[in-house]
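REQUEST FORM: STRUCTURE PREDICTION
Request ID: SP-0412
Submitted by: Lab K.M.
Chain count: 1
Length (residues): 403
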Amino acid sequence: MTRRTAPLWAAFLLVHALTAWLGWVYPSQPMGDVVLVYEPWSTSALAGGAIVGITQPWVYPQLALLPMLLAKALSMPLIAWLGASGAYLIAWAVLVSILDAVAFALLIGRRPSAPRRAAAWFWIAAMLLLGPIALYRLDAVTVPLAVVGGLLLLRHPAVGTALLTIGAWIKIWPGALMLAAVIAAKTRLRIVVAAAAVAAGVVVVLFLLGADQHLFAFLGQQTGRGLQVEAVAATPYLWAARSGAASVGYSFEILTFQVEGPGVPFVSDILTPIMLLTVAAISALAVVKAARGGAFARLFPPLALSLVTALIVTNKVGSPQFQTWLIAPMVLWFVYDRTRARVPAAIVLVLCGLTCLIYPLTYDALLRVEFVPVLQLTVRNLLLIVLLVIGIRSIAKVPTTRR
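STATUS: Completed
RESULT:
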């Protein structure tokens, strides 16, 4: 640790400790998924019971079980003192903090440049503003994988791609960074080969474990669900609910709150095709820029952010942990092109703060469709659309070297 890195590491450790503690004191159980879902899944797998993704269909890709099992192993020495739930919560926080520390160390090194220092401070600020959701969700495991994978894409494309591929087999969103790399990098062939090799290896192992019937079940688990209250497309229905023209209900099938009202099934059904079309349109624009000689450092960051933001804006789910997806593309944007990262970074920080205000701080009031939390969510969702527009505009402005 040097004089340049000491303040960064001090802030990193302080924010992680504070975020972990806030999970215990904030309302609405921001740590609920960890103890109510992850811990039982891991316990069942280790006890010889059902193994999600292997012996039964699962909402997540199969590698998502690995961090849950690792946290269970870390919790074993603590169970006698803290009980199963308390031990698992601490083990999960420690696991995510260790993964973040590894990525943070690679980001800043011993003598970080100004762009890398800015990226580090942004990451710290984003986590502080987002609160416990930045730590106590499965998505938190994929953020450091995406950061490290993105940092290694130029010098070690195979290793970087492998990490992004593994991240996509935990939560799908890191695949957006991999798609951006395939489009923007000149080493795209090596990236495609590495991704295919890792994916093939995962599929073979899962087949050997007996997951053949549920290998890609996670792709179909979201198709039948409705429109979650925090989704961007659900915002008009929340305002309609204030006048009685719509309502908020709880789905016992998928354990989440959804909006109910005229046209909701139709809106929910068309969001997935809209997502695919949006991703395809953004990719097509980026392909044109890459074909005309657009530089990786200018093209990859806004493309990665645009693709990830598109997955959020057009999603029928609007879970608060989705905002963690924005951290990795912005960290990489600072590293590769700090000057143009400032405006989208400011928006992402505001998004993180608003998301924490909505969940967990005013979530009960949101479910009662009270004015202030509905307004907060509306502003948050509008800013997501603004962020998507800024990302696409940044792609369109990437300079090219040939017609």
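NOTES: The chain has one domain: 6-396.
Reviewed by: T.R.
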